[in-house]
Every structure is written in C-alpha cells, then in structure tokens.
C-alpha cells in the first residue's frame, strides 16, 4: 500500500507540474488553457487516490475474493462517482473539473471500502487458504496453526464481515 501511495504522489506531482504546460501544445484559446489546467490539477488528486486503489484491488484479487473488489467498484463508481460527476459537471456547471471531482470522490469511496475489507481480514487464515490453494503443506512442511489466532487488528474468523466458511466451499 505504501508503494501505491508513493506512486500516486509521484504521478500527482507530474500531473500538477504539467498542468499549465500541456494544453499549450494543442490550443492557444485562453478558456481551453484554463479549463485544461484546472482539470489536470483535479486529475492530480485523482491519481493520489487511484494508485492505492489499484494496489488494494490487486490484494483483494490475490486473496481469491474478487467479489469484494467488484462490490467496492460498483459502490464507489456506479453509485457515487457517476451520479456525482454528472451533477457537478453539468448541473453545477463545473465542466471537466466537476466531473473529475465526482470520480475523485468515487475512487476515494471504493478505496475506503477496500481498506475496510483488508483491515478486517484474518491474514493468518488467508495464509492457510493460500497454502491450500497452492497445494503447499505449509512453511517447511508444517501447517501453520493460525486458524484460531488473532491478527493484529483483533479480527478472528468469527467476527469478520461475512461467514468465512462460506468462502471455502
């Protein structure tokens, strides 16, 4: 997650640095130049959210629970980002910057949902599940005894967001 955040900050810095220069390559119209500059500054903020979102989505897929990412995307983008982008871009007449702000909020919503899922996950159980799915008997041939242990967030298989026994079947 840290690498995703750092990548997002670098991408945002590059986007913000190019905000006043990029549109000049395509137009001399002052209105277009200003709109492009504003849009790229908002897009810089979107990149800060987008990189960690991509990393957390990959982690969720790696745990063999891709439906978590699906629901986070549906919630964040289709239920939050698209309606908000339309409202801010057209109804509030903020144009491209308003639409990008809608997607920024939607991406942040998806990211927050994924972070909640990841924080509540019993990582010890995920290790055992990964070993089973990979056909491994455990570390050094010894099965890890983590099924009843608590991870650092205090979650056990009994107090997770859903019944983990249903996932295994």
TrEMBL record:
InterPro entries: MATE_fam. Keywords: Membrane, Transmembrane, Transmembrane helix. GO terms for molecular function: antiporter activity; xenobiotic transmembrane transporter activity. It comes from Vanilla planifolia (Vanilla). The chain crosses the membrane at residues 39-60, 67-90, 96-119. It comes from the Eukaryota. PANTHER family: MULTIDRUG RESISTANCE PROTEIN (PTHR11206). This is Uncharacterized protein. The keyword Transmembrane helix applies.
